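Quick start: what a row looks like.
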Amino acid sequence: MLEKVALVDKAKAKYKNLSGGQKQRFSIATTLINNPRIIFLDEPTTGLDPQARRNLWDLIREIRDQGTTVVITTHYMDEAEVLCDRVAFVDGGHIIGIDTPDHFIDQLVETGFERKKQVKLANLEDVFINLTGKEWREG
């Protein structure tokens, strides 16, 4: 499991000595030990650097593709759009919409909504990862 979350070199480390990203990955590893059918991840990428964030996205996709249902809470809409088959928007403690990300977006576009800035094929996070590499970062 440590190999899956890129923590083999930290096998003997104390939890308190792990970085924030390492702690997050360790928590996911412990969650997966018994091959659960469903896991809940609360803000899994908060505070992570771009490489760790994207690698965690890959890990979440892998977990999902192996048949585990993954429920994520996040404030990052790009994360929900990329990772989720269905999303629920919560406002004031009430669910105000449940649907697929594509359907929500298509509905908004149908109202005549247009972004003020043209969306490009990449963003600054993509540039950063391209310049620095995609490997897990420690520290």
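That is the whole record. Residues 38-132 form a domain with the Rossmann fold fold (CATH 3.40.50.300). Helices lie at 20-32, 50-65, 77-83, 101-110, 124-132.
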